[in-house]
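User: Last request for today: this protein with pyridoxal-5'-phosphate, please.
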Amino acid sequence: MDNKIQNLNLVDAYFRLPIEISHADNFYLVDTNGKEYIDFASGFAVTNLGHNVEYINNKLKSQIDKIWHCSNLFYNTELNKLAQRLVDLTFADSVFFCSSGLEAVEAAIKFIRKYHFEAKTGRNKIITFKNGFHGRSIACLSGCSSTKAKEGFAPFLDDFIILPINDLNAFSDIVAHGNIAGVIIEPTQSEGGVYPVDKSFLQGIRDITLKNNIILCLDEVQTGYNRTGTLFKYQQLGFEPDMMTIAKGMGNGFPVGACLVKSHIAAAITPGTHGSTFGGNPLAMAASNAVLDIMLDDKVTSQVLDNIKYFEQKLAMLKESSSLISQVRQDGLIIGIEVKTSAKELVIKLCEAGLIVTRAGNDNVLRILPPLTIAREIIDDAFIILQQHLIV
Ligand SMILES: Cc1ncc(COP(=O)(O)O)c(C=O)c1O
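Assistant: Here's the final one, the structure of the complex with pyridoxal-5'-phosphate:
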C-alpha cells in the first residue's frame, strides 16, 4: 500500500486509508492504480444500494437538466413528492428537509425546545444515552458521552442528561425529577460500538414519554432505509415515535437528511423559525425519490432479509473459529466485531487485502456496514479475507 499518499491541503480531521479512490463499480471501490476493494463500509452506511445504480443515476441526470436549486422560497415537484411519500410511509404528519444527519438532529433539538416553549411547560432538558452518537455540532456533541469527540470543544449546552441504555429505572427516576422536554435515542447505537438497544427498554421509554408529554425522537440516521430489515427500525418495535431523524441511506450518497414530526410538534414551527438553504434541494429530492422507488420493491426487501441471515451464519462461523474475536453484535446489517487486538491496524490490513471495513467505539470494534443488496459471492470473498486476518 502506498503510505505516501496524503493531501496537506486538507484539514486533518479524519483517519484516512492511504488510497485514492477514482471510481466505483457496483459493490467495489476502485483506486487510481486500478485496484479493487470490496466495499463493506458503504461510506458509513450510506450507499445502501451499492454504487452506480443505473436507475438512480438516470433519475439524477434527468433532474440535472430540469433544475438544480431553487431554495425554499418555492415548493418544488420532487420535494412535494418525497414529503408526501415519507408521510404516507411513516407515523409522521410533516417533514423538514436538510442535508445531513447532524442537521436533522439539530432540527429535532430545536423542535423539542420550541414545542415546549409554545406549550409553556418551562421544560428544556433532553435525555440522550451513553455511547450514543448524533453528529459533530456543539448541540449534538452536548448529548454525546465520548470524551474523545468532545475534548477541546467545551463549553457544551448544559441541558442534556446522558443516561445508560437499557436501564429503565434510571430513566424513570430522571423523568420523575421533571423538566424533561425530550428524548433522543438511536434504536441501535452504531458509531458508539454497535450496541442494539433492548426492545423492552425502548417500549418502556415510549410508555413513560407518552404519559409525561415528553417528545420521543428516534435517531434513525443510520438504522433507517432498510439497514435493519425494515424501512425504518421503529417499524419492528410495535410503537411510533413523535419525531424521527433520517439521512445517510436516504440519498444513497447524495447529501440529504430530514426530521419527521407529528403535527403537534410541527405546529410550533412557523416561517422564519428554522431553515436550511439546501434543504429540499431538487437534486437531493430526486435522488431520494429514486432511492425510495428501489427500497420499496419487495424483491429488494427480501434480498436484504436474506443477506441479514446470511451474514448471521457467516459471522457465527467466523466467531467459532477465531481466537481474536471476543463478541459479535449485529442488528440487521449493522455489524460490530469486538476484537482482542487493535481494530485500526486490522482496518489497514484488511484494506491492503482488498476489503474496506470501518471501526466503532474504542479501538476494539471492527464495524461492517455492507451494501444491503450485496451479492453472495462478494460476501463469500470478503469472509475469506476476514478469515485470513481473524483466524490466527
Ligand atoms: C445515528 C446518527 N445520527 C447522526 C449522525 C450524524 O450524521 P452526519 O454525519 O450526516 O452529520 C450519525 C453519523 O454517523 C449517526 O450515526
